[in-house]
Amino acid sequence: MNKKWLLVGLLILSFAGYSQKRVGDLSLLYNSVITNTQDSNKKISSTTGYFLKGNLYRSEVTSNLFSSVIIFDSKSGTGVLLKEVNGQKLLIRMNEENWNQKNKRFLNLNFTKTNETKTIAGYNCTGANASTPDGLEITVFYTRDLIPANKSYDPAFKNLDGLPLEYEMKKGDLRIKYSLSSINLNPVPASKFDIPTSGYREMTYEESLKLKAQ
């Protein structure tokens, strides 16, 4: 009798997790638009990319006004922020404490599901909302069909029960809308996570705070 119920339980679990796929390697590319509700004619377009490989992740933000790259190892809790400030190419080293300080607004962020649904890139998505203590409002559509093995790659969605495929962040008059451009489950090259050894001025996270370069 016990064996029978054990088999039934295993069968239920197998069906429950059948539609979900836990992925270690993942590439995501979003198109984003920053608008000001006081002047809708002024828009800043950019692209945001995320590249995940096990405990490693890389994020890239590029526009005609700025660019920045973060490479981080969630296992060791260390990484770098690469950016150009006033013509200087900076490499800012971060430890886990620095990373948490940089993203403290997203700590303990809780999402509330809505009744909205949509299909994005062939994935069924559910809507959810959240807000940070400093007044940032987040609306997201996410899928539970794909679950990143490393959920630390985007602090805003670390506590989200799935993968964000479309989202919007709003505070005051500023609004940023992220729309999925592409998703790729192929292995990410290890070279994506190489940290430059030259061409950058290195500084600590504390030093970057004084320059407001973080």
Tell me what you see in this structure:
The protein has 214 residues and is mainly β. The protein has a single domain (19-211), classed as Lipoprotein localisation LolA/LolB/LppX (outer membrane lipoprotein receptor (LolB), chain A, Clam). Helix content is 14%, strand content 53%. The protein contains three helices and 14 strands. Strands 8-9-10-12-13-2-3-4-5-6-7-14 form a twelve-stranded mixed sheet. It has a two-stranded parallel ribbon with strand order 1-11. The model is unreliable at 6-18 (pLDDT under 50).
In which order are the strands of the major sheet placed? 8-9-10-12-13-2-3-4-5-6-7-14
Task: Give the name of the CATH superfamily.
Answer: Lipoprotein localisation LolA/LolB/LppX
Report how far apart the termini are. 61 Å
Structural class: mainly beta
Specify the overall morphology.
globular
Low-confidence runs of at least 5 consecutive residues: 6-18
Q: In percent, how helical is the residue content? A: 10-25%
* Arithmetic mean of pLDDT: 88
CATH fold-type name: outer membrane lipoprotein receptor (LolB), chain A
Tell me the number of strands.
14
Give the biggest beta sheet: 12 strands, mixed
User: What percent strand?
Assistant: over 45%
Core attributes:
two-stranded parallel sheet, outer membrane lipoprotein receptor (LolB), chain A, 14 strands, mainly beta, 214 residues
